[in-house]
Amino acid sequence: NAGVTQTPKFRILKIGQSMTLQCTQDMNHNYMYWYRQDPGMGLKLIYYSVGAGITDKGEVPNGYNVSRSTTEDFPLRLELAAPSQTSVYFCASSPQGRRGGSKLFFGSGTQLSVL
Amino acid sequence: GQNIDQPTEMTATEGAIVQINCTYQTSGFNGLFWYQQHAGEAPTFLSYNVLDGLEEKGRFSSFLSRSKGYSYLLLKELQMKDSASYLCAIGFTGGGNKLTFGTGTQLKVEL
Questions:
Q1: A43 and chain B in contact, CB less than 8 A
Q2: For chain A, how are helix, strand and coil distributed in percent, rounded to 5?
Q3: Residues of chain A with C-beta less than 8 angstroms from the C-beta of B99
Q4: Average pLDDT in the B16-20 region?
Q5: What are phi and psi of B33, to 5 degrees?
Q6: Distance separating alpha carbons of residues B14 and A9, to the nearest angstrom
Q7: A62: Cβ–Cβ under 8 A, 6 or more apart, which residues?
Q8: What is the pLDDT of residues A39-97, one digit of tens each?
């Protein structure tokens, strides 16, 4: 199993450009997440999904959009890139939780710079 | 909401024992997780506590006291490869297995 795969690994955008960060998992997990991590800060939840066709906002959703058309894929869309979106983005997945929740499996991350 | 506090940095000696503390405030507690993150890499799961007490896994142990909103991660027989950031994260109820992460404790292991 490949686990959680993110592409691209690095990207530089100009202000106002748009792009999609791709995320796919092959573990048949229902739950998927997008986090961003700024230097010296913890991971902040952007959006999450509990299954195909169902998405919801996390702590910092402004400037982003997501979709979940299949169990495997959970792309993150930046429509009008801004310097404040310079960050490392992590996609993660989790099996549907038992009592007490389940651990997250992370992709390798995408380092995005907006200049 | 959720609030998590952990020290920013710690330094320890190879072969020693180090304890990384985490205090939290949350509504709807649904478990506490510890993750390890090496520079430039993704977080990897270390441990999970949902009930009070100590969970031991090799050189790593994690403790939870729900009444005190307190957890610690204990690393024994430190190795140079243990130099990393250690993230405390809280699961909270409301669906989706969502986690809130602390800012992480950067551990440096020295000779």
A1: yes
A2: 5, 50, 50
A3: 45, 101, 104
A4: 98
A5: -120, 150
A6: 33
A7: none
A8: 878 899 999 999 999 999 999 999 999 999 999 999 999 989 999 999 999 999 998 76
